[in-house]
C-alpha cells in the first residue's frame, strides 16, 4: 500500500511540477507574481477539451496547438498590456494580473458556462497491474509528458540563444541590454513561454480532472506552494516542489486525513517563507 | 481646475444624478396595479452549480408556463397569471443572500422559489425568515437547515439523511446479498448529511461500513481516497454527491480499476452532462428519484404522473430528476396555499403569513408526488425510488410498481461494459 501511495504522489507530482514551472520562469525573469497563471492552465484545458469534443482529436495530439496558442496569447498579453507597468512598483503587476485573471475567467464563464466537463477518451480507464501496484496509463503518460515539457524548457533556456538571452535578462537587465538584448522583447517571449507551458499543463490535467472556467484558482495556489518550496525563479526547484506537493498530498490523504491537506500545505508554506525563503535548494530569488 | 472646467464638471455631475434618479424611479415596480403573482428566485446560472441550477430553473419555468397556459392561479373566481423574476447567484451563498433581499425589498416579489443546494438555501433563508416571505425550495435538504426552527422555509424533498433508505433496501434484497459498504463525501452540508444517512441506513440493514471519509470540497484528485477504499474491497460504494463529484468518482474509479458491485450517488447523475461526458462509464450508476411515469399520482395542473413525466421530457429532453420533481410539487403547493388563504396580489406581510400558515397545513397529492410538510418544514411524504443507468438512459428500477425495467446487479466489470 505504501508503494502505491508513493507512486500516486510521484505521478501527480510530475504534473504539478509542469503546472508551476511557467509561474517560476515568469517570476525569475520578469519579477512579477503572475496571477493570470491559473487562467493559462484553464485555457489550455479548454483547448484540449474542445478539440477532443468537437473534432475528436486525441488529447495528447492537442498539446502542440495548446503550446502555440498560449504562447501567442501570453506574448501579446505581456507586450501590449503587462509591459506598460514593468517599471512600476511590484504591487501594480500583482493588481494588473489579478484583474486580468478575473476578466479571462469571467469571459470563459460567459462563453462556456460553469459546467464541469470531462475529457474521457476510450483508453481513459486502462491501467497496468504491476505486482500489487496499479498504474493508470493516463497518469503515467501525463507524468511523462509533464517531465518532457519541464526538461524541454530547461534545455531551451540552456542551449539556445534566446534561452541565454532570457537568463541574461534575468540576471541583469542592464547587462543584457549592453549586449544587444532587448529586455522588452525577452519579457514578452518569456511570458509567452510561461503561458505555453502552463497551457500544456492544463491540457494534461484535463485528462484526469474536470475542466471548468474557475479551475485555475486551485492550481495557482499549488504553484505558489511549489515555487516557494522549490525556490522562486529556480526551475529545477519547481520540479522538486511538484514532487514534494504530490507525495505530501498522497501521504496525508492516506495516512492522516484528506481534510488536513490544505492546513499542512499552508503551514509548510509559512514556515518556508520564514525559515528558508530561498527554497529547499537555497537558489530561489528573494528581494 | 479653472472656473470653466469646474462649471462643466458640476453640470455633468448634476446631469448624471438626474439620469440616475430617473432610471431608479422608472425601475421601481408600481405595486398597486399588479394583477399577477410575482415570484422571485436567485439561482445559479453560472459557477459550480450552473448546470443543476439551470435544470431547477427549467422546472420553475415549466410550472409557470403550465399555470399561465391555464389562465393563472384562480382566487375568488378570478385568475391571476404568474411571473418569476430571476437573478444569477453565481453559485455563491453570499450572492444568493444579497439577491434574495433585493427580490424582496426592491422587486417586491410575493413569494420566493429557492436556490440550488443546501449551501445557498442555508444563508438566504435567514433573509426570507426576517421579511416573513415563504420560501419554497426543492434543492436544499441537508438536515441542519431544518433544525433552526424557521417558519417560512419549506422543502419538498425528503431530508438528505433519509435518501439512503431506498438504495440500501433494494441492494440488500439482491443475491448474493452485499455485506460491506464504503461511504465518501466532500465536506459540504448536503454531501455530509447524505453520507451520514448512508452510514445510519447501512447499519440498519446490517451492512458493514468498511470505510467512511469526508474530504475537502476543493479536492479534485480523489484517487488516493478511492485507492484506500479499493484496498478494503467493499461491495457497495456510496457517495454524498453532486454532478462533479459523481463524474470524478466514476472517472477515477475506472483509472485505478476499482469496480464495486454497486455505485450509489445521492445526487447529480441525472443531469444530461453526466451521461454525455462519461459515455458508457456512466452505466449502472444509481440515484434516487421521487417520480416515475408509472407512479399512481395526478393533479389538475399536470394531469397524471405519466403525462407530467412525458410532457416534461418532450420539453427538456430528460425525465425530471428529484429536484425538478420537487420544484413542480412545490409550485402546486404554493397554488393550493394561496387559494386556501384566499389572497390576491400583491401580497403584503399579513397575506404572506396566511399563505405560510396554509403551507404548513397542506396534505395533498400532486402529479409530482405527495406534499405534507413536517413541523420543521420538510416534505415528509416525498416518495423515494431508484433509477439506474442502462444503455445510456436512467430508468426507474424500484419500487416494483414504479419500475420501468429490472435492476442490474452486480455491476459488470469495466471491460465488459
Written account of the structure:
The complex is a heterodimer of chains A (287) and B (417). Chain A is 71% helix and 3% strand. Chain A is mainly alpha-helical and 287 residues long. Chain A has one domain: ABC transporter involved in vitamin B12 uptake, BtuC. In chain A, a hairpin with a 2-residue loop joins β1 and β2 (133-136). In chain A, α1 packs parallel to α5 (137-159), α2 (37-55) packs across α8 and α6 (161-171) crosses α8 (183-205). Chain A is globular. The mean pLDDT of chain A is 87. Chain B has 417 residues and is an alpha/beta fold. Chain B has two domains: 37-160 and 294-371, Response regulator (Rossmann fold); 162-290 and 385-416, 3-Layer(aba) Sandwich (Rossmann fold). Helices cover 41% and strands 19% of the residues of chain B. Chain B has helices at 3-27, 50-69, 93-105, 118-130, 164-171, 189-204, 223-232, 243-255, 272-278, 305-316, 322-341, 349-361, and strands spanning 37-43, 73-75, 78-80, 82-88, 111-113, 135-137, 153-155, 180-186, 208-215, 236-239, 262-265, 285-289, 298-299, 303-304, 364-366, 369-371, 385-390, 393-398. In chain B, the strands form five sheets. A seven-stranded mixed sheet of chain B has the order 9-8-10-11-12-17-18, sandwiched between helices. A five-stranded parallel sheet of chain B has the order 4-1-5-6-7, sandwiched between helices. Chain B has a two-stranded antiparallel sheet with strand order 2-3. In chain B, α6 (189-204) links the parallel β8 and β9 (208-215). In chain B, α3 packs parallel to α4 (118-130). The N and C termini of chain B lie far apart (77 Å). The mean pLDDT of chain B is 90. The interface between A and B is large, with 37 and 39 residues.
